[in-house]
Amino acid sequence: MTTLFGGIYKGKRVLVTGHTGFKGSWLIHWLDKLGAEVYGIALDPATQPNHISVLKSKYTSLILDITRKDELEEAIRKIRPEIIFHLAAQAIVRLSYEQPYETYLTNVIGTVNILEVARNLDSLKAMVIITSDKCYENREWIWGYRENDPMGGKDPYSSSKGCAELVTAAYRNSYFNNSSYGKSHHMLIASARAGNVIGGGDWAQDRIVPDLVKAASQDSTLFLRYPNATRPWQHVLEPLSGYLMLGWRLLEGKPEFAKGWNFGPDISSNLSVIELVKEAARTWQAVRFDFEKVPQLPEAGYLMLDSSMAKKQLSWNTVWDFKTTIRLTIQWYQHFYEQTVIQTESDLNIFVKEATGKSLVWTSRL
């Protein structure tokens, strides 16, 4: 597996912030398999159980708060990373209503702190800032948001992600301008926005798949809050392959890739919550659902990304369709709860094998 992505990660010092979270834990596991020297900075896992604790990955973990700039800078200077994937964030929409200050502090000031450290870190060659599809000003239209659409957000979480994108663009233009690369600086920054990411190992509160499988494991019924909300569902490995492709090109010193990118699923995977739940029930008979009658806090009803730029310029493509994504995700939890089996390694191997079968660029031996 060390030959994937041109073999660029083998032996590289790679830092992942937010490695104790769902996406971050999958990323450090993949980076370990790619032969990287992996470091993680994050808070303690927010849930029990959690994905990071059941993985068998080699990495160095530092538990600290990215809002504490001095501690963060000291830690990163000791690591001397060559590339940073910044995923640390408060990622729950409903929690952002309850804790707006903490959400902005982590998602905006935390990102500023990472970028500030990067300004004076000579080892660092590339950085990928991970935000969200919710960073866009949501107009509830039926076509996908493109990278040049305006940032926005009607709730604290969404607007904090829009702010993180604006901060990233400002630092890139001010301190790491692509036109000055190789002259006044040697660092490239990109940002990445994914869809609604699902997969095994997510136990976060107020997310549809974790709520669904927790209910199934307890032989109870899940009450759906937004059954008709439409989201761009994708397996966690899909955007991670995009982030890793992006890091690959930045480490190669190609400034044309230092910008914002969408990594969303094909349009066929933009489906409603009720469609997702029905598909899950076909895989695991313990899944049961009904509809919530209590009024809910507002969330976007329709949201979709246009990933044409990533497909055309980066040659990134998805591997799994909606049904495969749901089946493998639900099977991960079913096997965890019924057999205490962890399928992360197996799912990654299947994903790489099928991507290789499709001759995707990142699987090619150069």
Structure description:
It is globular and about 60 Å long. The protein has a single domain (11-354), classed as NAD(P)-binding Rossmann-like Domain (Rossmann fold). The longest helix has 20 residues, at 156-175. It has a seven-stranded parallel beta sheet with strand order 3-2-1-4-5-6-10, sandwiched between helices. Helix 6 (156-175) links the parallel strand 5 and strand 6. By secondary structure, it is an alpha/beta fold. The chain is built from twelve helices and twelve strands.
- Give, in order, the helices and strands: EHEHEHEHHEHEEHEEHEEHEHHH
Largest sheet: 7 strands, parallel
- Low-confidence residue ranges: none
Number of domain units: 1
Sum up the overall morphology in one term.
globular
CATH-defined fold name: Rossmann fold
Quaternary state of the chains: single chain
Write down the CATH class. Alpha Beta
Q: Based on the structure given, which CATH architecture is correct?
A: 3-Layer(aba) Sandwich
Distance between the termini: 13 Å
Question: Which structural class fits the helix and strand makeup?
Answer: alpha/beta
Helix content: 25-40%
CATH homologous superfamily title:
NAD(P)-binding Rossmann-like Domain
- Strand content is 5-15%
Count the beta strands. Answer: 12
Helix tally equals: 12
- Please state the average pLDDT score: 93
Strand order of the largest sheet: 3-2-1-4-5-6-10
**Any idea what the radius of gyration is?**
19 Å
